[in-house]
Structure formats: structure tokens, C-alpha cells
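To: structure subgroup
Subject: Chain for Friday's discussion

All,

I'm putting the inputs and outputs inline so they're searchable in the archive.
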Amino acid sequence: MSTAILDLPEKEYIMPGTRTCAGCGLPIAYRFMLKALGPNTIMTHPACCLTILHGMYPKTPVGINAVNNTFASTAASAAGLAAGFKATGQDFTVLAMAGDGGTFDMGIQALSGAAERETDFIYVCYDNEAYMNTGVQRSSATPAGAMTTTTSVVPKEQSKKDFIQIMEAHHPAYLATTCSSYPGDVYNKFAKARNIKGTRFIHLAIPCPTGWGFHTRDTVKIGRLAVESAIIVLYEVEKGEVRLTGKSLSMAKSGRRKPVDEYLNMQGRFRKMTSAQVEEFQKQTDKHWEELLRRAGF
């Protein structure tokens, strides 16, 4: 069960007035992540939407320390911070955050190496399914059928890279998926990850009105539709054991799930999808959902 919103800590680490786009899902999730992790957290991030959120030196709306690094080196930067704190005996949670471009694509080498060494940090891929901060170019996280500025004539033909499976193959101490539209689930998983040693990888789904083509008022609704149709599944993995959480767990118990076209039809990026592509999207979603149900014992 997700933590009730009224039961969450009142302390805030993000002040009003970030520089993100209207309707951005990232500050929603980041707010509850930091509530879970607390003040003894230092984070590192590349050039990305999170850089915009943190603001321009010397002013920031965020109440924790942060390090800016190059696009491909987020995990390497976090590994250096973790080593420094270990050497000096300081008790800090090291949080590495990068988008799908900085994780699925350019950051995969550093992240894979750090995970193989069981480096003690939390790595978060906040996935908005394109290079949003540089102009909505397609990444390997962009789903098939989506339009971006580099797939505007012919929508992306390749399926989204299954990066979560790649990270699970590294056998991290903790792996989880969550979505900004479910802040209780976000809080629970980061509170849990904070107290685990070793590499912890969390995939965070972030709806993006600018890149996805929906009204800013619908950010939370879009994220919930993604989960309710099982395009995004909320779960965690420890020692190979899969546990569904929150809405995904209740869906598994009830057997009720929405079709993917309700999610797809609300977004301008999918307006060129054919009926055959929608059918294939549903087929792949069904396959993924059924595999997770089997692994979770349903």
C-alpha cells in the first residue's frame, strides 16, 4: 500500500518557483523523493531537465547540495562522491539522477561499471522518453510510434529499450519502478532505498506535456493512465523476487486493466500511429504485464 499523502513528512526541500516547464512531472516526484531521503543527501546530475529545476548559480530552490557533471558521467560522479564519504567517514546518501538520454544512451557505460562494482549509491533514471532539455529528440527510451523532432516525418519505428531488464541483470541490491503520479509509491521506495547498502536503481516515469503533447493540467492523469493500462508497472525487485506495489498490485488482484489506446489518444506525439501499431503496442504491453504477474506469483 502507498503511504497516504497526509502521513508524509511536512519538511520541504523544494521551494516554490522552479524553472521547469508548466505541468512538468519531475518536481512532483523530486519533492517526495527528498522528503524520503532527508537533508543528509547529496545529488549529482548531468545537463538535463533537473539542471533547469535546480536553477542558475548562485540561486536554487532546492535545499540539498548538488554537483553538476558531464552528460555521460553521472554514475562516475556519484561513485567518486560515495568513495569520498566512505574515506572521510561522513554519513551521506549519494543520489545520482539523469534522464533517459543520460542513462539509456550516454550514461550506460559508467552506470554498468558502477553497478558491477556494487557502488553504494541510489541511481535514478527519470524517464520522459526523449531528450527533452535539448529539443525533444528521440532517445532509445522513446516508444515505437512516437513523434519527436528527429522522428517527425516517420514516427519512431523501434521499440523502447528494456533498460530495466538490463539493470536487473546487474543484480543490484534494490531495483524499483515508480511514477510521479503516485507520490506515496515514490516516497515508499526512496525511503526503503535509503536504508539499503550497495547499488540501488530506480526507474521513475515522468510525463512531459511539452514533449508528449498534452495539456499541462493532465500530467497526473497521464501518469495514472500509463499505470492503469500497465504500460508502466509499479514494482520492486530484491534478490530476484518481484513484488508489485500500489496501483499495480491492486490491478493484479482485481484483474482490471485499461486499454492502451486511452493513454495513447491523449498525446499528440502518437497522432500518426496506425491501428496496426496500436495493436502491436497493446500486444507488447500485455506480454510485459503477464510476465511480471507470473514472476510476482499471480
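Points worth raising on Friday:
The mean pLDDT is 96.
Strands lie at 41-45, 65-68, 93-99, 121-127, 174-179, 199-205, 235-238, 241-244.

D.
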